[in-house]
From TrEMBL:
InterPro entries: DUF707. This is Lysine ketoglutarate reductase trans-splicing related 1. Keywords: Membrane, Transmembrane, Transmembrane helix. The chain crosses the membrane at residues 12-31. It comes from Setaria viridis. The keyword Transport does not apply. It comes from the Eukaryota.
Length: 374
């Protein structure tokens, strides 16, 4: 039996070279993947470190430091909501001065069915040179074009979204930093007895960081909490007194809903308070239930002093369930009722989720101490 001839030394050398090249290529690929993995791990660690330094909106300089890949002088830390025309409006630029800059922003989620009411509100704010931003939840933006102030407002469209969903995505503190105050209001508020400039003057003079206008008890159709009711004898109130067992609000009360509390329908925030509140808003819990009970943690101090209801500039809460309610052209009222029921159930479920997240966060953050616990 004949055996095949042994491989020649030349053939063995070629095979060895090929094997070596394959091994080298594999090692290079593994090295590349290792670098990528280490890079991701480093990025994740750095991100987690910065996240841990954020405490309800207060960030350290290290957490907000810009990347070293840019020259320092080119970095723009903030943005704004000014409309920039495509053409060179030299005349407007010449006459513009710092007194023209809006110091407050009114932001609302709106639908076309409330156009008359929103028109009244927007005119009052624009008259004081405050900015207006409308979040259109019904998709109808063109229906507002005939209003003379429409082109002065910022219009943002997203179907069937709440004001908290819009606020989390479009009212970032770095963009809102040009405003001293943020009005995050519902669309169903009557403002016949409200002046935004006088309101802010009171807010500043009283040293308040988070407020809401009081509700007219005679005309408002939807009042949920007694602390929001207007006191005709005062300019501002910060607490209520109620000796019912379910409330038991007295001078000894230290928190909501007896003191240090405003409702989510018409809150007004200072710049510093909003920087904290924006971080408190949950990205996925879009109804905002439960937020009002925690807003006092963003009051930049003692919530019993820094949070209040302003009585002298009051509004009417009309209680119109427009988002998720029947539209002007609706022919299926039964379906609208079903939608409202579904929305309320989802809101209640989100409230429980928010409570669970707060309690878990308190347990896991060993360095955090509740400033309002005695």
């Amino acid at each position: 039996m004949k055996h095949p001839p042994p491989p020649t030394p030349r053939r063995c050398g070629v095979v060895a070279a090929v094997v070596a090249l394959v091994l080298l290529a594999c090692l290079q690929i593994q090295y590349h993947h290792l670098k990528v993995d280490l890079g991701k791990a480093g990025f994740a660690s750095a991100t987690q470190e910065n996240t841990n330094r954020i405490h309800l909106g207060i960030t350290t300089k290290a957490a907000t430091a810009t990347t070293n890949s840019l020259p320092r002088g080119i970095v723009e830390r903030h943005s704004d909501m000014y409309l920039r025309p495509l053409w060179d409006d030299s005349a407007a630029a010449t006459h513009k001065n710092k007194n023209d800059d809006p110091s407050a922003l009114l932001a609302m989620a709106v639908g076309i069915s409330q156009i008359k009411n929103v028109d009244t509100m927007a005119r009052k704010f624009l008259k004081e040179n405050y900015a207006v931003m409308l979040f259109h939840y019904d998709g109808n933006v063109d229906g507002w074009r005939h209003l003379e102030w429409s082109d002065k407002a910022i219009h943002i469209l997203a179907h069937n979204q709440t004001k908290w969903w819009f606020a989390k995505r479009f009212l970032h503190p770095d963009v809102m930093a040009i405003y001293d105050f943020i009005f995050l209001w519902d669309e169903d508020l009557g403002v016949d007895n409200f002046n935004p400039r006088r309101y802010l003057d009171i807010m500043v003079s009283e040293g308040l960081e988070i407020t809401q206008p009081a509700l007219d008890p005679d005309l408002s159709t939807d009042i949920h909490h007694r602390i929001t009711i207007r006191n005709k004898l005062s300019k501002v109130h910060r607490r209520i007194y109620d000796n019912r067992p379910s409330m038991n609000c007295s001078d000894e009360s230290k928190g909501p809903p007896c003191t240090g509390w405003v409702e989510g329908m018409a809150p007004v925030f200072s710049r510093a308070a909003w920087k904290c509140v924006w971080h408190l808003i949950q990205n996925d819990l879009i109804h905002g239930w439960g937020l009002d009970m925690k807003l006092g943690y963003c009051a930049q101090g003692d919530r019993t002093e820094k949070v209040g209801v302003i009585d002298s500039e009051y509004v009417v809460h009309q209680g119109i369930p427009s988002l998720g309610g029947p539209s002007l052209s609706s022919k299926t009222p039964r379906r609208s009722l079903d939608l409202r029921t579904h929305i309320r159930r989802q809101s209640s479920a989100e409230l429980e989720k928010f409570k669970e997240r707060w309690n878990r966060a308190v347990r896991e953050d060993e360095g955090w101490r509740d400033p309002f616990e005695s």
